[in-house]
Batch of 4 targets.
Target 1
Amino acid sequence: MDNLARQCRGDTEYLTSLYKNMFASFARHPDVADLPVQVVTCMDASGSMFDLYRNGRMQRVIDKFFAFATTLSDIASMDLWAFGAKSRQFGAVTMDNVRDYTFAEAGGFERWMSMLNYQYNNEPEAMRDIMMIYGALRKPVMVLFITDGRLSSDWEIEEILIKTSRFPIYWQFVGLHGEEYGVLERLQEIDGRRSENAAFLKLDDIDDLSDSALYESLLSNLEGWLKEIQYKHILE
C-alpha cells in the first residue's frame, strides 16, 4: 500500500485522499487482507447513462473504484468492462490512464456506447462474459457492477447468480441514478445458491456516501463473503 501511495504524484495526486480513506477502512477489516482479491469493474454504457459520463460522474466512479481495487489486489491495475446490448472488456485502468479513462480509453464513452449498442442494457450478457473470463480462476474475484436499473431480465440474472455461487466470484451491484432495480433489491430471496455471492448498494450519486463510508460498505460485504467461501472450501 505504501508503494501505491508513493505513485500518487503529479497528475494523479488527486487519488491520494482516496487511498488514505481506503487504507483506513482496510485497517478495520484485517481478515480481507488474508487473500489478494482481484477487483473487476463493469459499467453500464447504455444511453440512459450518457449524462453521467458527460458530466464526469462515471469518471469519479473509476477513480474511487481504482483506489479500492489496487489496494485489495497484488497488481496495480483494474480490469474494466462496459455493456449496452453487448459487452466488451476495455484496457485495464492503470496509474497512466486513470485520470481521463472514460473520456480517452478506446475513443471515450461516446464511442463505447456506439460499439456496444447503447439502446438498451443487457446485464446478463455482461455477467456471462465476465464469468467466462474469471470463472476458472481459483482466487477471489469481486465484480463492481454498475447499472441504472430497468434490468433486461430478472430471471437470467437470478440464474447466473445461482450458477456462479459455486465459484469464488462476488457480485457487488451498485445502482446509480436509476430506478426499477428488480431482482437486485431482493437478492436475499434467491434460493439455491451455495454462497451468498451478491449484494446491492443503491445510490443517486457516487458521492452520496463519503469515501470512507463507501469503502466501509464494500469491504464489509466482501469480508463476510470471504469468510463464507473459505469455510465452505469454495476456493479449493
Target 2
Amino acid sequence: MDTIEVSIQVQNELLKELLIAELSNLQFDAFVEEDALLKAYIKADVFNETELNFILNKNDLNYSLSIIKDQNWNQLWESNFAPVIVDDFVGVRAEFHEKIEGVVHEILITPKMSFGTGHHATTFLVMQLMRKIDFKGKSVYDFGTGTGILAILAEKLGAGKVLAVDNDDWCIENSLENIQKNNSQVIEIHKVEDAKSNFKFDTILANINRNIIEDNISYLVDSLKNNSQLILSGLLESDEAAIVRLCENYQLKHIKTEKKNGWIAILLER
C-alpha cells in the first residue's frame, strides 16, 4: 500500500502540536518535525484531501503532496529517525539503528510517530528530570504514556511497579509493543479517560498538555504519596508561572524547571 506524504510549512511549535492532534484524527499515523516543516503520513486508501484542506485552510497553511511507494517506507524511516541521546544518560533508537554506546540506558522505540520517541523536546526534558529522582523499588504512575517511553525508562531506573495509562487505542497498542521490545516486567498498561486512580504513587509523570494537566491536577495530587515527586510537561515556557502557581495551591513545592526550544518540564515535590 502506497503512503501519502504531506509537507506543511509551519514555524509555530504549538501549532505543530495542534496539527498533529487534528491530523491523527484523520488517520494520519506518522509525523516528522523539522525546523519550519511538519511532514505527515497517511495510507493512500484512507487519504481525504478535502478533510486535510479544511484543517490547513483555517490555519492559512500551505502544503505539498508526494507519494511514497510501499517498498520505500522502511528506508524513509531510517533516513528520518536518527537516534536520540540525552546527555550520557539515555539513548533512544529504533531496531534498525546500531546499538548506542556511552549511555547508561538504551531504549528501543518503534518510531511510528515523532512524539514519544524522544525527538520532541518535552520527552527529552522529562528524561533529564527523571535522572534526578531515585526510582529504586518505587511505584510510578505515567499519565498519558504515549509510546511508553517514560514508563520503560522508569523501570530501567529501578522502579518496582509502573502503571502507564492513556486514552488513545493507538497509544495503548504501541506502548504494549514497546514494553515487549524492551523486555519490561513491571509495567501495566491501562486505557483511561482521566488521571483518577485508586492507588498512591512515589512518582507521577504527566507529559500531556496544559489543558489536560489543569483538568486533572486534583486527581494527580490525590494519587501522590507524601514525600513524592510530580513531573509535568507538554508545556510551553509561557505556561510555567500559571502551572507553578496552580501546583502551589495544592501544596506542591516547585523544585526545578528544565527548558528546551520553548518547551518546559517542571519537577515538583509533595
Target 3
Amino acid sequence: MNRVLPNQTFIALNKESHLSKMLRLSQGIGTLYVSTHFELGNSDLLHYHDEPHLTFILHGGVTDKRKNLETERFSGEMMFFHAGEPHQTISRSFPTKYVSFQFQSDYYRNNPNLENELKATLENDPNAKLSMLKIYKELAKKDEFTESSIEMLLCGLMNGKHFDRNSRPNWLNKIVEILNDNWNEEISLNELAFAADVHPKTISKYFPKYFSCTLGEYRRRIKIEKSLALIKKSNFSLTEIALNCGFYDQSHFTETFKQMTGFLPKQFRKM
C-alpha cells in the first residue's frame, strides 16, 4: 500500500480492465455503477474518493484494505467507504461483479448527517443488502420507472437514524440483539417480551414505529440476508439452505426471497 492515487471515479479507476454500466440520477443524489472486473486494475492500488460510496458484491470476492485493517469480503456482502477514506479493493477471483453507488458532492455537502446515518443503516438494517439487490434489478429493467424506483430504494437506505442504537429504548436494543443472535430459531412474542422485560403489546406498538415493518417481516429480512452468503459460498441445496435459515420448506423460502430481492434464489446463485 505504498501508492496513493488522486480522487478517482469508478470508471477511471479500471478503464482497461472491466466493463461498467452507469446511471446518473437526475435528482442530483449520485451515480450508480454496475462493474465487472476481469483482471487487476487501479482500484487494487491505494486510492480515495471525495464523496462517500457503498458497494455490494454480486459475484466473486475481494480483500478490503483500509489503514491497518484487512478484511476478506465475498458475494452478498456490503462495503461502505467514507469520503476521503484511503482504501484498496483487491479482487481475489474473476470475474468479480459489484453494484456501487457514489454520492454527488453537492448532495453530500448539503446533508451533513448522511455518512453517519447511512453507515448505521448498512451495519444494522438487514434490509440494506436486499435493497441493493432490488436496485440492481431495477437497473437491469431500464424502463420509465427505473430511476424513480432506484431513488426510492436509496432514500430507504439513507434513513439510518432509525437504526442508531442510541435513538432506541434499551428494551428494543435487547430485542434486536436476541433476534440477530437467534435468527434461525423460532421465538415467540411472549418470549421476547419476557427477555426484554416489557409487555408484548409494547413491542407490537413500538417496533413498527422504529423499523417501519412488523416483527415478522423484520425476522424474515434477517433470514433472507443470512441466506445470501450460503447461496453463494456453500454447496448446500436450496432446500437445505431454506431449512438452515428457519423456513418451513423451499417453496416458502423461494417466495420470500423473490419478494425481498426481486430474484429467485437460483438466479442469485448464478449471478
Target 4
Amino acid sequence: MELEVVADSIGISTEWLDLCFDHCRGMTPFQMLQQIRLSRLFEGIATQPQMTLQQQVHRCGLASVMTANQLFDELFGIGLAPFRRLCRRAEADRLIRQRSC
C-alpha cells in the first residue's frame, strides 16, 4: 500500500503521516519498509544460502544487489557476500553434524 493511500484513507497529508510515524517509531515509513526488507533478506540468506544474492534481493523487493549490499552493511555490519559465505559454512557444518549422528 502506498504512503499516499494510507494518508488519504485517514485524512492527513503524506508529510504529516511521515512526521507522526517518525515521531512514534523513530524512522520514516520508507525507512521502516527498508528495514523490514533487509530483515527478510537476512532471514532469506540465513535459511537458503544457496540462492543467488540477486534472487534473494529481488525476492525482498529491493532495487539492486549493490544498493542492498550497502544498506545491509549499514544495518548489520557485514556485506551480503561475506554473510552468505558464513551462512553457507554454517549450513555445511550442520549437514556434517547430522550425517555423523
